[in-house]
Specification:
With 438 residues, the protein is an alpha/beta fold. The protein is built from twelve helices and 17 strands.
């Protein structure tokens, strides 16, 4: 009886036109409205029509912005006029800066933007030059802040925007010749070498760290002293000009090696004479000078940005294994340098920038970000767009296409987003430059 009532009701509704599903074609009952999904690749903005209610993984219904992709339509490649930008500062950044400002991989905005030569005079010069107005972008491995001791005299910190530019690591390089590759050195031993408390490679502490005289390398180290070899005397190399690499190195020795040297903008651990206690010591001007000093000096030790040991001609540089905070011995790699940034987590800022000696396994203990420094207020629309769009292109496309091949870790996505937000604060006459379509 109930079944008959339901059947009669359905017939009545159909007759009234209120029940239409039964009268639709079978294909219409299952038709799903097509939606457009987008996938942004390094070569093209792909579109795809799908007949589902959601986009496949890796695709989105929202059309992505092309800015920073280097694809057709990227406004980073459009500036209102020709401009040559003057640049100087961090030698830590020099390989990446060279690749993004000169040669076939350089940013050019269709040939309108060129760059001065990059002297790589050091982070201190990058900071003083931007404050003095002698460059349009200054580069420093340490942000320019009063708290870090890196603010030049008379400068107002609030006048400058500081954008994360590169992520890399420093290594401890040395030159002992064949049979001494991959030495293990503790942070304490490195600190004692720089303070003149360890002066010989055959020092019992170093021998013990490397397995004692029962191992081939430990025995070889001990024999340097037994045989009174000239290379047994450690020749200590340090940076004699304002250096962000020195700052990171000092942080490392302070935190991991209990060196007693407080990092404060690199001073007084750099400059004429320095303050290291070693007596057999030689000052070099920048990372390139440090690399060459190690290559040319048997028995030497120094600290140098990782990318420099990858440069042809620097293969004589031997690189020490260092311990992460958990005590595990590591050889440097982009993977464990990236792990340092991951261990630091979010919240990177000019007040929270150090990523040395962080907790975790396989975390390179001597890693650092580097920064591009630009005045917030610009006076020329052409200059402002050239500066901000170059830095946006570098912190997005340049990280994907260039950073790894130059020995740097591509900036994490959150740091790229942070860089974009900072660039949107740079203006000319109140107008944000980086978003202009010119």
């Amino acid at each position: 009886m109930k079944k008959s009532i339901r059947s009669l009701a359905a017939i009545s509704l159909a007759a009234a036109g209120l029940l239409t599903v039964a009268t639709l074609p079978a294909s219409a009952a299952h038709k799903v409205k097509k939606i457009t999904c987008y996938e942004l690749t390094t070569t093209a903005l792909k579109t795809k029509h799908v007949t589902t209610k959601a986009c496949p993984k890796g695709w989105t219904k929202t059309k992505p912005s092309l800015q920073g992709t280097n694809l057709a339509g990227d406004i980073d490649n459009v500036v209102p006029g020709s401009q040559t930008l003057s640049i100087n500062g961090s030698s830590f950044d020099a390989p990446l800066i060279g690749a993004t400002t000169s040669g076939t991989t350089a940013y050019s905005a269709g040939g309108k933007v060129t760059f001065s030569a990059y002297p790589a005079a050091g982070s201190g010069t990058g900071r003083t030059s931007i404050v003095n107005g002698t460059v349009q972008i200054g580069f420093s491995d340490v942000p320019m802040t009063a708290a870090a001791g890196t603010l030049p005299a008379g400068a107002t910190e609030a006048n400058f925007d500081q954008i994360p530019y590169a992520l890399g690591g420093a290594v401890i390089g040395y030159n002992l010749g064949d049979g001494f590759d991959n030495l293990q050195l503790t942070a304490s031993e490195i600190a004692q070498i720089y303070d003149g408390k360890i002066t010989q490679w055959s020092d019992p502490q170093i021998v013990t760290t490397n397995g004692g005289t029962g191992t081939a390398v430990g025995k070889a180290l001990s024999n340097l002293g037994t045989n009174s070899e000239a290379r047994d005397t450690i020749k200590v190399l340090y940076r004699n000009a304002g250096s962000g690499t020195t700052e990171a190195f000092t942080y490392y020795l302070s935190e991991a090696g209990n060196s007693g040297h407080a990092p404060n903008g690199g001073s007084p651990m750099e400059g004429a004479g320095g303050a290291w206690g070693a007596t057999n010591i030689l000052g070099v001007p920048n990372n390139a000078g440090m690399a060459q000093g190690i290559v040319n000096t048997l028995g030497s030790i120094g600290y140098v940005e990782y990318s420099y040991v990858l440069i042809p001609g620097n293969d004589a540089i031997q690189v020490a294994q260092l311990q992460d905070k958990n005590g595990q011995w590591l050889k440097p790699s982009l993977t464990n340098i990236a792990a340092a940034a991951a261990a630091a987590g979010t919240g990177l800022s000019t007040a929270n920038f150090a990523i040395t000696n962080l907790a975790g396994n396989n975390v390179w203990p001597l890693a650092t970000y580097s920064w591009a420094i630009v005045p917030y207020a610009q006076t020329s629309e052409t200059t402002c767009e050239a500066i901000t769009k170059y830095l946006d292109w570098e912190t997005h496309y340049g990280q994907n296409a260039i950073a790894s091949s130059e020995g740097y870790v591509p900036l994490p996505q959150g740091v790229r987003n942070y860089a974009r937000a900072l660039l949107e604060k740079i203006t000319v006459n109140g107008t944000v430059c980086v978003t202009q379509k010119s």
